[in-house]
Amino acid sequence: MEKVITSTNFQEFLQEPGLLVIDFWATWCGPCRMLSPIVDELAVEYEGRATVAKCNVDDCEDIAAQFGIRNIPTLIFVKDGAVVDRTVGVLPKQELEAKFNLYL
Fold first, then answer.
1. Is residue 29 among the annotated active site residues?
2. Is there a smaller number of Cβ atoms within 10 Å at the N or the C end of the chain?
3. Which residue in 21, 32, 64, 72 is the catalytic one?
4. By CB neighbour count within 10 A (0-12 exposed, 13-18 middle, 19+ buried), where does 26 fall?
């Protein structure tokens, strides 16, 4: 199950060991709405092995700026506190699964 990142709980997410996948999105973003069901499915499928969290760029501009988010949807893959990969745009579920598996 995906979680919601806010400016107040963000540091807690970064301190967790293992794989963290952050979905940067916005309510007005059409491609974000296309990617969202895929991210939701992956959050359920990888529960216990990876943390999937959503970060609304309109609510958390500081976090988006910290990661250099210029286009959404963007997925940031963080392994043990360090950014290891990112994707921009809508990708098929199989490609995202491959990235999850690569960093687990």
1. yes
2. N
3. 32
4. middle
CATH 3.30.565.10, applies to 3-92: no
Of residues 5, 29, 42, 78, which has the active-site annotation? 29
Query: How, if at all, do strands 19-25 and 74-79 pair?
Result: antiparallel
* pLDDT, tens digit, 9 for 90 and up, residues 65-92: 999 999 999 999 999 999 999 999 999 9
**Residues of the chain scoring pLDDT < 50:** none
